Amino acid sequence: MLNLDVEDPITKRFVSAATMVIIVYCVAVPFFIAVEGLTLVDAIYFTTVSMTSVGYGDIAPHTVLGKLFTSVLLLSAVSIFFYHVTHFGQFKEQTIDPHVHRRLQMLRNITALKGGDVSGVQVRKIREKMRMRAGES
User: Which of 2, 25, 80, 113 has its CA 20 to 30 A from that of 51?
Assistant: First the structure.
């Protein structure tokens, strides 16, 4: 039996992504069978081709409801993909060298300062941290 450590953040994200994809299939496949009259295999195929944004064009929705549902399916699939890719990228960032991580944080602080979206208290804290780190080097 497969034993997943759901406390591990990467495993948690993977399980979340897989669950979302399975839910989309569980909704889309029966929908295409009922509304568009596709066979099970064609419904799975069309859902996969649509979600991966390949779009061969050999199967297409013919009803208005099918076209609207496919539009929502496409937007959902792309959103799910980018949401999870973004979070996997954050885990990769956590594994980088602490020295590089400190430099990245300093760059973020400087960008926030230049963007003007930082309060006065935060500016003082950032300047204090930068002075302390400059003394470390």
Answer: 2
Residues 69/47, Cβ–Cβ less than 8 Å = no
DSSP-H helix ranges across the chain = 9-35, 40-51, 64-94, 98-115, 120-136
Q: What is the pLDDT of residues 4-14, one digit of tens each?
A: 555 666 677 77
Domains of the chain: 1-95 (1.10.287.70), 96-137 (no CATH)
DSSP secondary structure code for residue 95 in this structure: T
In this structure, are residues 88 and 9 in contact, taking their beta carbons and an 8 Å threshold? no
Instruction: Give the burial class of 25: count Cβ atoms within 10 A of its Cβ; 0-12 exposed, 13-18 middle, 19 or more buried.
Output: middle
Q: What type of residue is 51?
A: M
DSSP, collapsed to helix, strand or coil, labels residue 8 as coil
Q: What are the backbone dihedrals phi and psi of residue 56, each rounded to the nearest 5 degrees, phi first?
A: -60, -30
